[in-house]
RNA sequence: GCGGUUGUGGUGAAGUUGGUCAACACUCUGGAUUGUGGCUCCAGCAUUCGCGAGUUCGAGUCUCGUCAAUCGCCCCA
């Protein structure tokens, strides 16, 4: 028969892992809360046009999407990233009319990309991200980097660094595009196949090619900086100044241009330098977008945001031995000796109602086996229901740590637990 | 989309030039000890080696296909 298993590039998150997920998610939500970002939940799929924008040349948009159409309706696509859906929602609900700009949103959830899976790269993956829309300020660019940075640091990750660059405003950017094309025009034959393709669709990406890295024409390529207008330079200076003031270490990486071509001004990427992260080193990355809101039909309004891959965060947390939560110890385990009917379940229910984590023995088992369960659950108190005591309305309560045992009437079980468990905290 | 490596029980894994019983360790289950465990001792736990074909008298071991994981390229969170 068929062997059922998770589809390629997807994974089951089992309880031992989901505890860690919950821990990370909780940390993220608390940081967002402090920074005044509120959660937005948009659909898992959108009209394909939301993700496939005109003039967008990235491969992600071109071929890595899960696109489908059912019952002859419009083409839909499983979201490959968070920003597009949020901007769509921002415009649809006219959030630009909000009295308090910027609008500060965060999202967390599954994203889908048809790619070849690798460590830290899956077809269904979880991403957390924020978008700050409506106010264009270098202070906000720095603020969101600080937010992301504090999550990474809050998790205890050490080996990360912030890479940052600026693409300048629309004008600077297109000026540079032409300057670059001009420069490489005579060197086209030397370039690799990918670069020839990039030359046409997105010359900016020529700069971070790994194959042609050492070519002479790469080294002599004009830098983006020369094409920046004064306004763009000043903007970037202020972003860096703010990062300095916040004592966030960064590295300016002139090659950093990022994949999505809606970015303007600041782009950044926080990468891990830990060997475990392999080639999938980016922990979070993003940048400012001046024209996206307008593209979706809103007013001319700038925004800035980033996306963070949670699987990677988890991999890094484990690689750096960050202590993640274990299953909490059990407060009480109700053991059954002989024929005691439903009494263990009754007691367990009562104990649970009192707010204690409690398990009970449901099938006839030897005392030894039951004590093994007690040990495995790291139980604090064993409640032992025996036939003899049951007839007298009594039950044994054993403090596992101190190895002391007393016999009390049913009515005093909770009081006794309160005393034992309350005393140790 | 391209190239490399790997795939044996719940877990970690041995498996020699293809030749009966698929080692060992941990976990788990039961017993010694039907009502008080964590030590010890004993016993049990893979009709089967990712899946499917093929070669062979015989395949975990060879071939092909397929699925998956992983590393690198591409791309990117």
What topology does this entry show?
Blueprint: H1 15-35, E1 38-39, E2 45-47, H2 48-51, H3 59-63, E3 67-68, E4 76-78, H4 83-92, E5 103-112, E6 124-133, H5 138-154, E7 160-166, H6 170-184, H7 193-201, H8 216-219, H9 224-227, H10 230-245, E8 250-252, E9 264-272, E10 282-289, H11 292-295, E11 303-309, H12 310-319, E12 332-337, H13 343-353, E13 358-360, H14 367-376, E14 381-386, H15 387-391, E15 394-399, E16 404-409, H16 413-423
Parallel strand pairs: 1-5, 7-8, 12-13, 12-14
Antiparallel strand pairs: 2-4, 3-4, 5-6, 6-11, 7-9, 9-10, 10-11, 14-15, 15-16
The chain binds one RNA strand of 77 nucleotides through residues 2-3, 5-6, 8, 58-60, 63-64, 81-82, 111, 113, 115-121, 125-127, 129, 194, 210-211, 258-260, 269, 278-280, 282-286, 306-312, 335, 337-338, 364, 366-375, 382, 384, 386-388, 396, 398, 400, 405.
Question: Can you describe what's shown?
Answer:
The structure is a single chain. The chain is of the alpha+beta class and 425 residues long. It is built from 16 helices and 16 strands. α5 packs parallel to α10. The radius of gyration is 29 Å and the shape is elongated. It binds one RNA strand of 77 nucleotides through residues 2-3, 5-6, 8, 58-60, 63-64, 81-82, 111, 113, 115-121, 125-127, 129, 194, 210-211, 258-260, 269, 278-280, 282-286, 306-312, 335, 337-338, 364, 366-375, 382, 384, 386-388, 396, 398, 400, 405.
